[in-house]
Amino acid sequence: MRYIDVENLTFYYDKEPVLENISYHVDSGEFVTLTGENGAAKSTLIKSTLGILHPKHGKVTLSPKNDRGEKLRLAYLPQQVASFNAGFPSSVREFVTSGRYPRRGWFKKLNAHDEEHVKTALKAVGMWDYRNHRIGELSGGQKQRIAIARMFASDPDLFILDEPTTGMDDVSSADFYQLMHHAAHTHGKSVLMVTHDPDEVKAFADRNIHLYKDQNGKFACFDLHTDREKVKVKEVTHA
Q1: Whole-model pTM?
Q2: CB within 8 A of 6, min separation 6: which ones?
Q3: Which SS3 state, helix, strand or coil, does residue 189 take?
Q4: Nearest-CA neighbor of 147 among 47, 76, 45?
Q5: What's the CA dihedral at 98, 102, 104, 105 to 10 degrees?
Q6: Ranges for the ABC transporter domain (predicted)?
Q7: Is-contact 183 190, C-beta < 8 A?
Q8: What is the mean pLDDT of the segment spanning 75-84?
Q9: How many angstroms separate the CA atoms of 100 and 81, rounded?
Q10: DSSP state, residue 131
Q11: CA distance 173 to 155
């Protein structure tokens, strides 16, 4: 089932086109990465897809339903989400537990099922043993992991992640990629993840959408798994 469908999206900063005629899609049950050189407007594309930024032209469709016919639940993890200062008052467990409230309602008491989700999420990112620590006491990588745990606790159908492994070591990053692969392939979740290092995640992802600069200096978009050879042929033809 198609959860994201973007057609001919064009975005301007002031009067300068940044993205032009970008089309891509993400289906349920797949883990898709989004890559591109520095300045390739990857975050801009994500924000335009979510409606945080408003494109000049094009059509963006987010499915209102998941593949079970229920309301689609979406979780977005922006860059630098883990910039908590030392005075942040919550414990790790309290912070991650707050991810369950949108499902239950802010004034409804959480039940054992909710608590199990929180425990599972913290264990999945290796932070269960830190559950009673104050967030301000954690390292940058640990803060990033509990932000991810909070997102997992909300149990979304669609994950949209902007460089989520920033601050993590190689082992933690690999564990996270395996976790996202498992979420997509075992639980039918959909994952769209911006990454600056496609090589370290390619063993886990199903597809890689790449933003690249064309001969006119505009960023275009292609799926590396299906269109890469076409692009190479075109470049050889022009040579």
Answers
A1: 0.83
A2: 22, 23, 24, 25, 49, 58, 59, 60, 61
A3: coil
A4: 76
A5: 100
A6: 4-238
A7: no
A8: 76
A9: 18
A10: T
A11: 20
Which domains, from first to last, does the chain contain? 1-73+160-180+192-239 (3.40.50.300), 83-155 (no CATH)
**In sequence order, what are the beta bridge partners of 2?**
27
Amino acid identity at 201: V
Structure-block tokens of residue 232: 């190479």
- Output the six-digit token pair for 87: 């005075």
CB 171 within 8 Å of CB 125: no
Query: Contact, 22 vs 44, CB < 8 A?
Result: no
- H or E element that contains 144: helix 140-153
Give the Cα separation of 33 and 26 in Å (integer): 10
Which residue in the block uniquely carries the two structure tokens 């494109």?
55
| Residue count of the chain | 239
Rounded to a whole number of angstroms, the CA Rg of the chain reads 19
Q: Tokens for 217, please give them.
A: 């200096």
Distances (CA, A) of 92 to 106, 138, 141, 161, 181: 19, 9, 14, 21, 25
80 vs 63: CA distance, rounded Å: 27
